[in-house]
UniProtKB/TrEMBL annotation:
Region (Disordered): 498-517
Protein species of origin: Streptosporangium amethystogenes subsp. fukuiense
Protein name, per record: Amidase family protein
PROSITE patterns documented for this protein: AMIDASES
Listed InterPro entries: Amidase, Amidase_CS, Amidase_dom, AS_sf
SUPFAM superfamilies reported in the protein's UniProt record: Amidase signature (AS) enzymes (SSF75304)
Domain of life: Bacteria
Span of domain Amidase: 85-484
Amino acid sequence: MSIPAFTPADLTAVAGRWGLDPGLVDRLGPAIDRMRDTYGRVRELAAEGRPPEPPPIAVTRVPRGPEDPYGAWLYRIDDPGRTGNGPLAGRTVTVKESIAVRGVPMTLGSRLMVGFVPGSDSAVVGRVRDAGGIIVGTSVCEDLCYSGSSFTSAHGPVGNPWDPRRSAGGSSSGAAVLVATGQADYGIGTDHGGSVRNPAAWCGVFGLKPTYGIVEYDGAMPTERTLDHIGVLTRSAADLVAFLEATAAPHPGGEHGSYAGRYAREITGLRAGILAEGFGWPGRSDPRLDDQVRESARALERLGLTVSEVSVPLHRYGRDIHLPISIEGGLTTVFESRLQGNNHFGPYHPNFGETFGEAVARRPEDIPVGGVLALVGATLLRDATHGKVMAYAQQLRVRLREQVDRALREVDLLVLPSVPMPPHPLPADPREAVIGTDLPFEMHDNNCVFNLTGHPALSVPCGFVDGLPVGMLLVGRPGADARLARVAAEFEERVFRCPPPPRHTPDAGLPTARSGR
């Protein structure tokens, strides 16, 4: 695609946007034309030596119905890809549709990306294949990942496997449901503020947000690069270590040895700290859920841990600190740089960015209402404050991380609720729910803190409230992911093992509302 010549009207518009002298901008026209020519040469250079397209794979869209009563599948695929004898040999894996799988449409839960098909695997999918994992399909996610619930996807709502009338959590909603119902051994998701741990808690499975950066994010939709994590969902805590062995790099400050070796270490004598600020959120916490998590935390003593209470005062303000960083970072990363971000060493994905940018320019009505809220809010607030409040939030983020690190010098892991409340009913009108309620974001209080700090955080099923699963969040020092998995596995073995959810039929009450647009 050639870049069209810029007209005098284009130059005048840019001058107006930035408050510049129109006469000066007009005189700069020839210099800008030279810049445009350079852009053209870069495009031509990039086209030279491009590798040939790989052969197509068999992809099947999964309809709602007997095969998928919860609306969790997007595509099934028949593509064994590379075969290996690694730690994931023979295990089935689904991939959130915001993570690239070669030859499979990658829609990000949105109408904006319909028709985009990545030509290569994301880094995490490539490593899973190399480790012998079998990619069996992709799972539904929230529209552009702008929700922690499961009702905004352009493909329709995703029902909870324990009660399809309720949210499965999000934005990695389909991944959690497919794992909970035994349709896959692993569900790979992304986690920007709790998007793996929210659905893990509400669906009764394990959900790990690893230490920041140890699982490469290349090939997944970015929202704000310092918050973005690849995460994983499993039915068994013991399965987490194989995923780490296959996909994760060692953390520079973490424990020594392989993840399997770290997992095998004794946990007797570890110190668990019940995080006081993680409980009793005014207007949001269900006291029965708080009590269940406290009781489960005390049960860690049966595993040989000591249990005390600790405090991280800024934890109570984590969601406040998260907001300016996430929305202003998202404005830059998602909208202004077309899902590429700037000022980093990459990798970059030109076709991905071009598809998204053209869709936003030509079909802004397809931006989900949650995306519109973030786009407009971030634009107004950044312009009103010139980024100063976001900078304050980044300073507070450093203090928050220091407080968490200080607490983790007193104890070896923190314990708190993954989500303050049980899953809410799916709304009849998703658009109005985004506009007029806090349903997409009410569950983020505890989880988003550890996207800010980068500490590993693992949601562990620990009981039920009104027949709906409760998640207990374990948080460790950077690099202590395997230790969390071992504690969770011992808890699963000796304290509480979540049973499988009941079977439901397609007419079990899943709302028919299609999107939160």
